[in-house]
Amino acid sequence: MRNANRRIVLRARPTGVAGPEHFAEEAEAVRAPGPGEVLLETLFVSVDPAMRVWISENPGYVQRIEPGETMRASGIARVLESRVEGLAAGDLVHARTGWQSHPTLAGEAVEKLPDGIGSPTDWLGVLGTTGLTAFFGMRAVGLVRPGETVLVSGAAGGVGQIAGQVARIEACRVVGIAGGAEKCAWLRDELGYHATIDYKAEPDLAAAVARACPGGLDVFYDNVGGATLDAALGNLALRARVVICGRISQTAASELYGVRNMGQLIGKRARVEGFVVTDFQHRFAEGRAWLTARMRDESLRHRVHEIAGLERAPEALGMLFRGGNTGKLVVRVGA
Amino acid sequence: MRNANRRIVLRARPTGVAGPEHFAEEAEAVRAPGPGEVLLETLFVSVDPAMRVWISENPGYVQRIEPGETMRASGIARVLESRVEGLAAGDLVHARTGWQSHPTLAGEAVEKLPDGIGSPTDWLGVLGTTGLTAFFGMRAVGLVRPGETVLVSGAAGGVGQIAGQVARIEACRVVGIAGGAEKCAWLRDELGYHATIDYKAEPDLAAAVARACPGGLDVFYDNVGGATLDAALGNLALRARVVICGRISQTAASELYGVRNMGQLIGKRARVEGFVVTDFQHRFAEGRAWLTARMRDESLRHRVHEIAGLERAPEALGMLFRGGNTGKLVVRVGA
After folding, report:
1. Is beta strand B236-244 parallel, antiparallel or unpaired with respect to B271-274?
2. pTM for the model
3. ipTM, 2 decimals?
4. Residues linked to residue A104 through DSSP beta bridges, in sequence order
5. Inter-chain contact B274–A279, Cβ cutoff 8 Å?
6. How far is B289 from chain A (nearest CA, A)?
7. What is the pLDDT of residue B1?
8. CA-nearest residue of chain B to A230?
9. Structural domains of chain B sorted by starting position, each given as residue range(s) with its CATH number in brackets
10. Which residues contact A171 (CB under 8 A, 6 or more apart)?
11. What is the rounded distance in angstroms from the CA atom of residue A4 to the CA atom of residue A266?
């Protein structure tokens, strides 16, 4: 079917890690845009840990996706046909495309990319909600101050790679936890992390954190949760802030890990705080201005991990939970 | 031995709940005060959950007590002999007496009680660090605001009884968790708690919290920790604050409880924070002014649970961990 809209729909809710068996590909005729709508050709779609939450039985704070529905996702697309003022064929946009190749969307769901700032995939990664999550989580929730010691878990992931650099640029000493010597070397050599912990090579993570951060943690930016959170709680400095950004070790777990070190919060006068980046929507321009400036002066680097083919999006989602990606994971849809 | 200084010393570190088997009574001649010192006759000593931490192997944030040392404690005493300017025989003072009957202390360790404010035991309870812990924990850490729903665990204990009333006076809806129908009735009928949960009668504490607080918790003031903390984390409202004041269920536990509901902090944008009251020392006058005013207008009530006889202090410490006290626990030393 030429110019069909290919879309990936949820087939069955996963109980563990999500993968191809939980999704199906469908195709339908492209729908011509009505007044106030645009027809898009999707170039890239995002793959994020939160997606596993959206397709679960009880996502809690977001509307869940029902079987048969197209998978919700951010994407970068080119306008094919527009009935929206200010959008013309050929424009590049950032939109809630979902995992589909030719969505027809309301103009309000589409944002034209500014000229000359970042590449298309940057708008899913460092300049998208991924980078903004790192920026606001580290600064507005973690309240990092120069000279502090900052630990980041999931440091080689989409959010982690930016979070650690935000702290490094704020003159903190930054330590990253990642899986494997290759990721760790990249964090140190390319992203400027001061030290790394390869959790796959450490029999005792708490002891490894203690060695890497002998004065304790002022800020722990957590993307992993579970035993990683426990190891960090056992190594807090006075008045530490623990930022709960994600918990990828727990999201698809059959049984939740029990965190034993909560009592440390008393003597350390420490805080554990969760957040959702959309609460900072009114400050996204501020965050993007900072991130753009740091990209321009090359103090901020990042990697995009690209998978080719919309049909591989479900497989990519599973990769996240196996630590298969380095940097921000995206799926290339178009040619 | 007339006018001997009787003192309770640590004999052996407990591994579980502390009791008489971990302490010994000794007697020594009273020591006459040197320049800058006072000789006291202790009237009351305090018994606090934190004491179990001080005598443990690794208390973390305070100096531990060694076997053979007198048990550290706040007390109320009468001056018998003074070589300190401004203190005279007969004065009532608040001091770090320890569990002993006739300590000789440096003048700096002794604070004269102001006339006409509270009874002597009030200076160990509602006007002592117990009441100040409740006040600053609820207001400065919990940041309670009028109309919010506030849950207090250990609500019938020394700190809990005040904490709930601080929130009630701030126009919050206050729910207390306590053990037994009698304690619960007292919280509702005498202290003005709006609802109570008898944890001993509830097979599912999380469900009981959900029933008592259908809109979720804005503030959870936790003195208990462990499974109680988990039940509360499963019932948070958006932007909830969880104040970790104590964790009496865990302090003497042989194995720490693993908290499973940490993931709730993300979607609820919630915060868990520990504190130690001594960090608010520069604001104690403010706290005492508030508490005194509320005692005078009778909006703040409280109970002192008095045990007679210094030799029973170790037994009293064990009571705290068995929920044996209602209100602030003190030991009467003198006649």
Report:
1. parallel
2. 0.95
3. 0.94
4. A39
5. no
6. 25
7. 44
8. B258
9. 4-125+303-332 (3.90.180.10), 129-278 (3.40.50.720)
10. A146, A147
11. 59
